[in-house]
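User: Assemble these into one structure.

Assistant: Restating your components, then the assembled model:
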Amino acid sequence: MIAALAGGVGAARFLRGLVQVVDPADVTVVVNTADDDWFHGLYVCPDLDSVTYTLAGAQNPDTGWGLAGETFATVDALARYGEDTWFRLGDRDLATHLFRTRRLREGATLSEVTAEITAAWGLGPRLLPMTDGRIATRITVAAGELAMQEWFVRERCEPPVLAVRFEGADAAVAAPGVIDAILAADTVLVCPSNPVISIAPILAVDGVRDALVSRRDRVVGVSPIIAGRPVKGPADRLMGPLGIDVSCVGVAREYREFCSTLVIDAGDAARVDEIEALGVRAVTADTLMTDARVAAALARDTLAAVA
Amino acid sequence: MIAALAGGVGAARFLRGLVQVVDPADVTVVVNTADDDWFHGLYVCPDLDSVTYTLAGAQNPDTGWGLAGETFATVDALARYGEDTWFRLGDRDLATHLFRTRRLREGATLSEVTAEITAAWGLGPRLLPMTDGRIATRITVAAGELAMQEWFVRERCEPPVLAVRFEGADAAVAAPGVIDAILAADTVLVCPSNPVISIAPILAVDGVRDALVSRRDRVVGVSPIIAGRPVKGPADRLMGPLGIDVSCVGVAREYREFCSTLVIDAGDAARVDEIEALGVRAVTADTLMTDARVAAALARDTLAAVA
């Protein structure tokens, strides 16, 4: 059994490789939900959907999020009513948010709806939201505090980050199966996701960090930072201001308490000694997932690193 | 000042003619909301939207409802989640339902949201829902009771109608401005709409029928039945089973308590005496609104009938 902690696009690509090299039914993915938010009265879960669509092979290959061949008639029409339309929800993607929101309003938990959505897409792995409660990433910039998507999408990650907090983390409990999946897994993977806004919120859920620490020997991470830069997304604009070195070494320092092994890019081989000095074993591989074949090889290398 | 009672497509076409011959700002339209229903967690108001889109010149000219050039990506995608998709909500139309539903959930009344929606479309006339409460047309067929859209759209008006009732009519009160508009109008128009499921629900709202009766001399209707057949829609399949003659005479009999004058099609001139024997003055005109020019002429003739 394999458990994986996942954010959005990077994790989705890695998981698509993983299911090529292991039985998908053996995989449980614990997905960040701190980016979730309400748009036009609909509850949107960007990371759950990115992972779902990518595992179904339906994602937009250019953006990594959203659906391939998507149209945007509804969101464009919402502008007539004065609605903010900077969060570009596609027409087919809207079906997911409509279904999810209706089921949540009927009283279903996010876990239950997620199971229904992933079944509808015929996914092999089990996807779990990190919590059925509400944790929301809040980003402080000079002008004040922003919701994650406001900073990320509306402001294009431009305002310098002063602080990050996970609103609601004190009260939220892990979704059913999350802690069990970590404790029961032969291997726990920390996908190549943003350490600050994808992995850290999962760690902030009560019990998750402790469960990972207890399985440290079996926890292997993949660095999302290659040659001092994120492959995709704003990790550098979050790690730097929070005092985290924007490098695979910085990632190792963040994860060392619960992660025995870190897979880093072959191009970062010169940093192996620095990482191992932190008490984390460093293994090199090709971590730039330019296609599904590379992703599968990376998944294989990652599993082998703790075999 | 003019007040008009309106259902969907027929009323919308008539009103589009009306605003060509009077100052749109002098017109208040009281719209049937007993066809409203929830689809995919969104509150849909078919008649309000048909009137709005038609007055804005944005309606689908082929169907009379929905928007011109519409696409259906979202509703098609909802099928993946096992949702019923027989009610074909268009992608741009969905923006209206998303906006309305969000505002209603925020606590706005349907009247308030309707004012916002019609302002967004730049409409001249004032549109009022008949009530801010909930009245729902229920249609009894052999298999049981159906919601209006189930019978009308899903079942294509095929199951014979045994009974019609307006659920919630006992408790609903007229929306702000409805009674005042009727009492203050120089002329009250009963648009060429289905007497059973478009006009009767408005009459079922407490105070509306009494207000109309008190203004009977100034109330003029337009028969939606020409030569014993409805121009559009299932009026014949509702009137007949409920014992209402499917003719302009049957309409006159239904309306005579509150309507002094009925405009009927020139082709029905032979029925004038029967109508006048009911105490309703009959005026003939070209009532088949094949284009906006005919609609404008009909509106002019209708106003002249009680001038």
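The mean pLDDT of chain A is 96.
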